[in-house]
Amino acid sequence: MRPIIVSLLLSLSLFGCSHEQLSAKNQQGVSDNMSTSSQVVKGVSFSGKVVHVKVEGNFWGVITDDGKKLNGELPKKFHKDGLHIAGRYEVKEGMVSFRMWGELVEFSELNAK
């Protein structure tokens, strides 16, 4: 019985140390493969065309001039199929969308062309 208790305490102390080390790595900005937090790649500029996508409950997306599909929330003033726009976006890595269309992004600095 005593060896079991000692083994249990030893396991708990090792786990506590590794948790503290992971926390220190995350605070220093070191990437951890087990991390579930999303990472954002900032500031990609684009120009493209607004499209009304009629799948997964209908939504508005953007197809860039180079053919990339961008899946993000567009303000209502840009809800015009075929409207040419330009702006910037940030990729939302580590996140998922039920739409399953294009790359999940957050738009900024949008302008109609």
Write structural notes for this entry.
This protein has 113 residues and is an alpha+beta fold. It has 2 domains: 31 residues; 74 residues, NigD-like N-terminal OB domain (OB fold (Dihydrolipoamide Acetyltransferase, E2P), Beta Barrel). 23% of the residues lie in helices and 39% in strands. It is built from 1 helix and 5 strands; from the N terminus they run αβββββ. A 5-stranded mixed β-barrel has the order 1-2-3-5-4. A hairpin with a 5-residue loop joins β1 and β2. The longest helix is centred in the N-terminal third of the chain and has 26 residues. The chain is elongated. About 19% of the residues have low confidence.
Poorly predicted parts: 17-37
Number of helical elements:
1
Question: Total number of β-strand segments?
Answer: 5
Helix content: 10-25%
For CATH, the homologous superfamily of the largest domain is named as: NigD-like N-terminal OB domain
Largest beta-sheet details: 5 strands, mixed, barrel
Gross morphology is elongated
Mean pLDDT: 77
Order of helices and strands: HEEEEE
Q: Order of strands in the sheet with the most strands?
A: 1-2-3-5-4
The CATH architecture of the largest domain can be named as Beta Barrel
In whole angstroms, the N-to-C terminal distance is 76 Å
Radius of gyration: 22 Å
Quick rundown:
23% of the residues lie in helices and 39% in strands. With 113 residues, the protein is of the alpha+beta class. The protein starts with a helix and ends with a strand.
